[in-house]
Design brief:
Layout lengths: L1 H12 L8 E8 L8 E2 L8 H6 L6 E2 L1 H12 L7 E5 L8 H15 L6 E2 L9 H12 L9 E2 L5 H10 L3 E6 L2 E9 L3 H4 L6 E2 L2 H14 L4 E7 L2 H10 L5 E3 L6 E2 L21 E3 L3 E4 L5 E5 L7 E9 L5 E6 L2 E2 L8 H18 L2 E5 L7 H4 L5 H19 L13 E5 L10 E4 H7 L5 E8 H11 L13 E4 L1 E5 L9 E7 L8 E3 L5 E7 H4 L13 E8 H12 L10 E3 L10 H26 L1
Parallel strand pairs: 1-4, 4-5, 8-10, 10-11, 11-15, 12-13, 20-27, 24-29
Antiparallel strand pairs: 1-16, 2-3, 6-9, 7-8, 14-15, 16-17, 16-18, 19-21, 20-23, 22-27, 22-28, 24-25, 25-26
Helix pairs in contact: 3-10, 4-5, 4-10, 12-16
């Protein structure tokens, strides 16, 4: 199809396309997560410390540049039929949102001429009350909520949300009426603060609404969703009459290969290959033989998706031209958007320099320490994880009965890149310590998986270059034998029970299930923690590590975290080490040997 598409574009350039064809350009972004400056490959804000860690870091993106690009395409007379869409998650992800919440998102988003938007799960992080002001600023004509039911809300709120976020919208673009649907993954009801909003299954809700639109004579149908790439492909297969899905949530990077429909191409920044998920667009065939195009645009404002679709006389997808773009800092910036960005970054700088807490001791986060033994900043961050989950889980309404609050946290040393001195601590200080912007998640795994994870934690201990996999803990007491071989270095592990009437440390049971707080990076299997990548359950609560640490510091200040013996290493004498399987026998024989030695000495002296 892409070969045919190239030919089609050449034909279009000479004005020989079929008179009945309809051309539609869709510009889209998703998962901005409060990133308004430059971002690195991981979608984290670029800063000097990142370059000190990895010389391969490349910085792209820039909100003002994205605005200028979108407005330029939107205003191009050769693209009269253009839709601008956002697939959710303007909120959460950086100190900018932590300080200014909906205000900064609304100020930025107003610079983009959006035709349609959906709400992401992170947009509910401050609850409905924290989201409504953003929606009100954006106006009554952009949001779509196909699978949200507001009937359980109070009458005033129900009416407002039903008017601001209807189940579908019909947009007139050129000579065509286009139906737009919007959805959010139902798990948001558990993982976010959605109040009494009820979420329907996406496929059921979309199928119902497609029938409504078809009865109104609307044939071109676009679903704008925040359920992730995998779910979007399933929706594309199962919901009849859909033409395009513009998605988000999974932070999927899709890139076109101009000679293949099924293969992903090479993105312009070669470092992004590690995040490549699939082709842009991903073509999904329905059982009827219809094709549905699925597009995503990674995260953090690094890319803007751009697809030009040709529909035939029957309003079916005929061909397309894919041209997503990597936003570069050298691209022209929209002046008004740049003023807003500069204003908020100035406010962020001023707020970040104010003390938020005090430490009575030095908080050690140096790689040479935290990557090979217990460190007090690692303890402090792990304790912050537990505290944040205790507070946030308790204030959530459980739809599944009792929720177990984790008492165990694993923090990999690579998450921490600097120490903090004794004295006042600012948000700017914490920003340097935690530059990578991880969320705190809860995974349910077996004791066996934990034991394998502990082995992995020690696997690079003797290499010249530390790689950040060594774990710091809360709610765990671990003894290692560094001199033993791979697979035998964990002498013992005791975990804090979260089901006991009085919490206590118990020896790990390899068949038992445990809830552990970890970063998103580790939950995704980073640093070879593959045993955590497929947990029995995974819960996300929208907690950013920077926010978690800052809140904990405010609550507990002045702080004085210590090295408490959470991690210990077995010591050996200079004598030959005794194999573990023989240790008990040798130890039992030792008193007899000493007794014989003493009796011999007495005889000699006499």
């Amino acid at each position: 199809m892409q070969r045919r598409t190239i030919c089609t574009i050449l034909v279009m350039a000479f004005g020989v396309t079929a008179a009945s064809d309809y051309h539609l350009v869709i510009l889209h972004q998703n998962d901005l997560h409060s990133r308004y400056g430059l971002v690195d490959q991981w979608g984290s804000p670029c800063r000097k410390v990142a370059y000190q860690i990895d010389q391969n870091v490349t910085c792209f993106g820039g909100f003002a540049q994205s605005v200028a690009y979108i407005k330029n395409i939107r205003g191009d007379p050769y693209n009269p039929n253009t839709l601008v869409m956002n697939a959710g998650d303007f909120f959460q992800g950086d100190a900018m949102h932590m300080l200014f919440k909906w205000e900064v998102a609304a100020a930025m988003a107003k610079h983009i001429p959006f035709d349609a938007m959906v709400i992401g799960d992170k947009d509910f992080n401050e609850g409905i009350d924290g989201l409504l002001p953003f929606m009100r600023v954006m106006g009554p004509n952009v949001f779509i909520c196909t699978n949200m039911v507001f009937s359980a809300l109070n009458e005033t709120l129900r009416k407002e949300l039903e008017e601001m976020c209807p189940r579908h919208r019909i947009l007139t673009v050129g000579q065509k009426k286009i139906g737009v649907l919007g959805y959010l993954l139902p798990e948001a009801q558990v993982n976010s603060y959605t109040g009494d909003i009820i979420f329907e299954d996406e496929i059921r809700a979309l199928t119902r609404e497609v029938k409504v639109l078809r009865k109104k004579g609307v044939k071109i149908l676009i679903a704008l969703g925040h359920s992730g790439y995998k779910r979007d492909r399933e929706i594309a297969r199962r919901v009849p009459s859909l033409d395009v899905i513009v998605g988000g949530h999974s932070h999927s990077l899709l890139w076109p290969d101009f000679f293949s429909e099924t293969e992903a191409g090479v993105p312009p920044d070669i470092e992004d290959l590690r995040f490549l998920t699939g082709p842009y667009p991903t073509v999904v065939m329905q059982s009827s033989g219809r094709r549905v195009l699925v597009v995503h645009a990674y995260k953090g404002g690094r890319y803007v998706g751009n697809i030009n679709i040709t529909f035939d006389r029957d309003d079916e997808v005929k061909e397309w031209w894919s041209q997503p773009i990597l936003i570069r800092p050298t691209m022209p910036a929209d002046e008004e958007a740049k003023k807003t960005v500069d204003e908020f970054f100035g406010r962020l700088h001023n707020e970040s320099m104010r003390p938020i807490g005090q430490s009575l001791v030095q908080l050690v986060g140096l790689e040479e320490t935290c990557a090979k033994k217990e460190c007090n900043l690692g303890n402090f961050l792990a304790d912050a994880y537990i505290r944040a989950l205790r507070v946030n889980i308790n204030r959530k309404v459980s739809h599944k009965g009792k929720i177990l609050i984790p008492t165990i946290a694993f923090v990999n040393s690579g998450q921490i890149v600097a120490s903090l001195p004794m004295g006042n601590i600012t948000l700017s200080d914490l920003d340097v310590v935690l530059p990578f912007r991880n969320a705190v998640e809860v995974i349910t795994v077996t004791g066996s998986a934990i034991m394998h994870a502990l082995q992995n934690s020690l696997s690079n201990l003797f290499r010249e270059q530390f790689d950040g996999r060594f774990m710091q803990f809360a709610g765990a007491r671990v003894v290692y034998d560094a001199q033993d071989g791979p697979g035998g270095r964990v002498v013992s592990c005791h975990l804090l029970c979260n089901t006991c009437p009085i919490p206590k440390y118990q020896l790990v049971n390899e068949s038992q299930l445990y809830q552990i707080a970890v970063s998103t990076y580790i939950a995704n299997g980073g640093y070879d923690y593959k045993m955590f990548a497929k947990p029995l359950e995974r819960k996300r609560y929208g907690l950013l590590d920077l926010f978690v640490l800052a809140s904990y510091l405010r609550q507990m200040s002045p702080v004085h975290p210590a090295v408490e013996g959470r991690i210990k290493f077995k010591t050996h004498s200079n004598a030959q080490r005794v194999p573990k399987q023989c240790a008990s026998r040798q130890t039992a024989a030792l008193p007899i040997f000493l007794a014989l030695l003493c009796s011999t000495a007495v005889v000699c002296l006499s």
